[in-house]
Design brief:
two-stranded antiparallel ribbon, nine-stranded mixed β-sheet, TPR_rpt, Spore Coat Polysaccharide Biosynthesis Protein SpsA, Chain A, 17% strand, globular, alpha/beta, Serine Threonine Protein Phosphatase 5, Tetratricopeptide repeat
Length: 369
């Protein structure tokens, strides 16, 4: 059986850290906490779980802090978590089993990162991350912000999930944006990946014009990861819509088809585009087209799961309702309701559409045109 070090970097996480460490306790063989400047009770809480707590002077570089935490690890494999990550009970069981059965020839274990849940706890947004790596490989973290671990195979892709849950009421920070701006003011070079994430930060802070320029710059390098290229097309389209450049937005969405077969997330955006233009027939085409697509099985990029089933069904219902075809609308809404029986929108739609269909039948019986 292999041994595992948990290596974490934290700062002011007193609201999150206990849940995280409770969820992993009893599975890992050591817990390493690298604190980057907490002023709350984070370190005191961590001391209840481990005596391996270290200070690291923050230098606006997440990779530097993570690499320091990895150098402190002493076990066969290193696992990383953020303070607002945790394992659900079923994933604790899976990770324990993996620890007992992992082939030591594996260098990197990929795990699903569930970052979005609906009110019923269903996963609606996820992607894969490198989570467990062999220590002797000495893999390094890269990029000061939105860092990633540069690894190599042999890989093992598992169904173990790490769940991400932010504390309600937390607000978006401009920390990452400031790090990028500081680098640029110092005339430092941004990698293609850095340019992509800088553009995302700009968009998230409503600087749509500069964000669009950075997304275009990123795509023009033709050096991005395929999944980032697709995501950049999606995000760039959102920027152009905010800038009232509708045709450029639509062109960006179709541009994503260069990189791979159409993705449901992109096709939903196209459907919404035509829906906004009140071209319900074209919108319905795109929402129904999604239903013919197969969700990627070997995809380490972002997946918005509702875009592959629930959303195209319920939006098809909306489109046919607008076109006055209530029978078709009811058919699609019924399918959406089967996928999400607790959906308030689908329930309300179902009652409304059933009444519409019944009224049409009644009118036809009476000969009303």
């Amino acid at each position: 059986m292999v041994t595992i070090s948990l290596s974490m970097i934290v700062k002011n996480e007193e609201n999150n850290i206990r849940r995280c460490l409770n969820s992993i306790r009893g599975i890992v063989d050591e817990i390493i906490i690298v604190d980057t400047g907490s002023t709350d009770n984070t370190k005191e809480i961590c001391a209840l779980y481990t005596d391996k707590i270290y200070d690291f002077e923050w230098i606006d570089d997440f990779s530097a802090a993570r690499n320091y935490s990895y150098r402190l690890a002493a076990k066969d494999y290193i696992l990383w978590l953020d303070a607002d990550d945790f394992l659900l009970p079923e994933d604790r069981v899976k990770l324990k089993k993996l620890k007992e059965t992992l082939n030591p020839q594996i260098n990197t274990v990929m795990m699903n990162y569930n970052t979005g849940l609906d009110f019923q706890g269903n996963v609606i947004f996820s992607y894969y991350r490198e989570r467990l790596t062999k220590r002797e490989c000495n893999f390094k973290w890269n990029e000061p912000v939105h860092e990633y671990l540069l690894t190599e195979g042999p890989f093992l892709e598992t169904d173990i999930c790490i769940t991400h849950g932010k504390i309600p009421g937390e607000t978006s920070s401009d920390r990452n944006l400031k790090i990028y701006e500081k680098k640029l003011s110092n005339l430092e070079f941004l990698s293609p990946r850095g340019t992509y994430y800088y553009a995302r930060e700009l968009k998230d802070h409503d600087n749509f014009l500069e964000a669009s320029r950075q997304f275009e710059l990123f795509l023009d390098t033709d050096l991005g990861w395929l999944e980032d290229n697709i995501s950049a097309c999606s995000e760039l389209a959102k920027c152009y819509l905010k800038l009232n450049q509708d045709k450029r937005a639509l062109a960006c969405l179709f541009r994503s088809f260069i990189y791979c077969a159409p993705r449901a997330e992109i096709c939903c955006q196209i459907g919404y585009y035509y829906q906004e233009k009140m071209d319900y027939e074209t919108a319905a085409f795109w929402f129904q087209f999604i239903l013919s697509l197969k969700k990627p099985k070997q995809c380490w990029g972002f997946l918005q799961h509702d875009c592959w089933s629930y959303i195209p069904l319920i939006e098809s219902a909306v489109c046919y309702d607008r076109m006055g075809d209530y029978n078709k609308a009811l058919k699609y809404n019924t399918r959406a309701l089967k996928i999400k029986p607790d959906s308030l929108q689908a329930k309300q739609n179902q009652t409304y559409l059933q009444n519409k269909v019944a009224l049409n039948r009644k009118n036809k019986t009476k000969g009303v045109p």
